Amino acid sequence: MTITTSVRSAAPRILVVEDEIELSTLLQTILSDEGYGVEQAYSLSDALHSINDETFDAAVLDVELRDGVVFSVADALKARGIPFFFLSAVYKGVVPSAYRDVPFLSKPYEIEELKHCLAETLASTH
To answer: Phi and psi (nearest 5°) for 103?
Structure first.
């Protein structure tokens, strides 16, 4: 199930891929309050459908979802030139070498760290 909320035409659109509904909702609230349009995806299939059907300026990816690891989503984002970063409680060492240069924010994190990481990710496209 994919939920689209707080989408403004001029606002950067962010895909949040997080299977924990409470955490996904918190991320949506934080990012919406910062002026971003946010689409939530709770599974790999939701995320891949969203990427195929929508346009995003950046993405926030949890590494381990209930239906698998997120690297197929990372591949799809990379193929489309959409920047992203990982936000996860897993050890950074599980990230494949192809994505070792992608920013990784460890859970738990400070809200300001999240905002900064997203701003840096968006800036990397310009």
So the answer is: -55, 145
